[in-house]
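Milestone M4 deliverable, item 7.
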Amino acid sequence: MLQFLKRALAALIKARQAEANRRIAMMQLSRMSDRELNDIGIGRADIRRVVYDESTSEIPQAQKEEEYRKFGWKLHKTSVA
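Output delivered:
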């Protein structure tokens, strides 16, 4: 039981830190000028997508698909234009 609580607390801390990192990234990108954002290849409207897509890139695609299969779901492939 104690190990479970330790793992749960560690997972909670990790999730809160990841969210804080995403918020910091969004604040930093939001403060950049349109020209600076263009230089790194994103538009102002893309900030949220970029920040949250990067947070999920830690998980390999095969692992995501496996997690979805456990529930009988299918991971849809999307193309970014």
